Amino acid sequence: MKTPVVISHSGDDEYFKAVVIIAAQKNPVFVIGDSVNQHTFKGMQNIQHIHNADLQTKELEAFDASFINYSSNSREEEFRCFRRVFLVQQFMHLNRHEQVFHLDSDCLLLEDVSKLFPAQPATPATAYALMPNYYPYLMAGCIHNALLSSDFCQAFAQLCADIYISKSKFSLIEPKINWHRENNIGGGICDMTMYYLLHAEKIVSVLDLNQAYMIEKEVCIFDHNINVEFGPAGNNTFTLANGLKKVLKNNDKYYCETKDGSLIRALTLHFQGAAKRSIKEVFTIGNF
Fold first, then answer.
1. CA 222, CA 67: separation in Å to the nearest integer?
2. Which of 152, 189, 196, 234 could disulfide-link to 139, CB 3.0 to 4.6 Å?
3. How far is CA 30 from CA 41, 124, 145, 273, in A?
4. Is the pLDDT at 15 greater than 90, yes or no?
5. Model pLDDT, residue 173
6. Cβ pair 282, 22 in contact under 8 A
7. What SS3 state is found at 129?
């Protein structure tokens, strides 16, 4: 049994289709989607579609009814990001998975996840990117590529209830809300704040995927954002080419060039923002 890869997306964007098809070359992929994309991958090997309406729960409905948007982004945009964890939680419950690999719909998965993490571990783990607080109240964790356990999903849902419904832990986000308002700085509270708090408050043990890992005798990374120089050595780790990390494809492997000229193998590549249009090109030939 292989580790399931779960991708949540609404719509039928070309970059999303490329991400799903590429991930399915080495992994079983489950798309939590909508009516627009429910037939997009029909008949394709290793890809199954689940309508998000079939994963609705009373817990999610209660959160939706109490959710207040403390962000400069739209409520719809922010709630959609929160909602996906509830949907993944119900997917795991219905299919009896203790652990899945979650992927954003603009993040290329280049490897067989089961070779990186045990498909049926004795102790299901949680792993995602933890961001250093480069400015006050950044408070961010990211699940663009993340190993999510059922314990994580349950803890996430409970934290959301404690902050937005009972408000027993509202104090965890109040200073950040005030800081953004008082300094007139965009952003605010989002799902990434919850991922940070789950780690910072020691509610869930999290393996940081912003570190480098030794796999098959090579130094490897899970890419945080292909548009930035950030990596295991901090903000100046990687070299950029035309605004993207310099990526070299060698046979079936991908490498990012560092500032000192060395190469680090990429297990994922996260094409955030305008970089989405480069997914097929970089996957095919690299961008050196």
1. 31
2. 196
3. 11, 19, 15, 23
4. yes
5. 98
6. no
7. strand
DSSP 176-224: HHHHHHHTT-S-B--HHHHHHHHHHTTSS--EETTS-EEETTEEEEE-S
C-alpha span between 160 and 28 (Å, rounded): 30
State both tokens at 28.
């079983």
- In this prediction, residue 274 carries a pLDDT of 96
Spacing of C-alpha 174 from chain mean position: 25
Phi, psi (deg, nearest 5) at residue 231 = -165, -160
> 């039928």: which residue's tokens?
12
Name the nearest CA neighbour of 81 among 9, 186, 165, 130. Answer: 9
Cβ of 262: how many Cβ atoms within 10 Å? 10
Give the pLDDT confidence score for residue 102 in this predicted structure: 98
In the structure, what pLDDT confidence band is assigned to residue 109 with cuts at 50, 70 and 90? very high
Quick check: 108 and 22 in contact, CB under 8 A?
yes
Q: Where are the alpha helices (DSSP H) in the chain?
A: 14-23, 58-66, 75-95, 113-116, 150-160, 174-182, 191-200, 279-285
Q: Which long-range contacts (CB under 8 A, 24 or more apart) does 149-153 make?
A: 149/98, 149/99, 149/124, 149/125, 150/89, 150/92, 150/93, 150/97, 150/98, 150/99, 150/124, 151/124, 151/126, 151/204, 152/126, 152/198, 152/204, 153/85, 153/86, 153/88, 153/89, 153/92
Mean pLDDT of the chain, nearest integer: 96
Q: Which two structure tokens, joined as six digits, stand for 40?
A: 């997009």
**Quick one: tokens of 55?**
């994963």
Q: What is the pTM of this model?
A: 0.95
Contacts 24+ apart (CB under 8 A), 254-257: 254/110, 254/286, 256/221, 256/223, 256/231, 257/288
Reported confidence tier of residue 283, pLDDT bands at 50, 70, 90: very high
